[in-house]
User: Fold this.
Amino acid sequence: MNDSQVLVLQHARSEGLGSIEGALRGAGHSYKYLRTYGGEAVPKDAGNFRGLVIMGGPMGVYEYAKYPFLRDEMTLIEGFLKEGKPILGVCLGSQLLASALGAEVKKGPRKEIGWYPIHLNANVAGDRLFNGQATSFTAYHWHGDIFDLPADAVPLASSDLTALQAFRHGENAYGILFHLEVTREQIQTMLQEFSEEIQQENLNGPGILNSCTAFLPPMQEIGASVFGRWASLV
Assistant:
């Protein structure tokens, strides 16, 4: 392992780094995927890793009995927090970070899947990642769970359905519930991998994919900036 490697916790085949990969490479960092969905063991501490990225997945933070590796992930996150190393949690990753910081994670009033507006609040004016971004933009979502704001954390974003869509804890730990990182290929793969959920929620999968034409380019521009800034903290 080189001195600038980032550990990536992956919980589903379709939910890889996406545009985060380019940001890491652009900042001179390599990365190592740890596929917990495939049974790979979670390290007990941060070790020599410079940062931690926690990706999304279909499981709930509270489903320890079904997914025992989640307890190991929580311990690892706590270790990164204790050492002050940068953390980026996406979707499930943001929920795990919030839970590790003592906040409650619970089911939301309904699932938020597809393209919905994100609203940045006044706190982003002093934030390293989101300062200067468009105060409102349409982003990709796929979650059913929500979380409370952790103690001493700063709320950064909301949607019409979900009061807390992004937060910062300290100077370099970020949780982003919406999927700012996705590519068109990832969205297509997610729609295939979780097609049963799309049917259960009576959603229009082809319509969600077609909406990439309008919504994905401006979101990816914001993502490139946000993730590039996070990578500079590593």
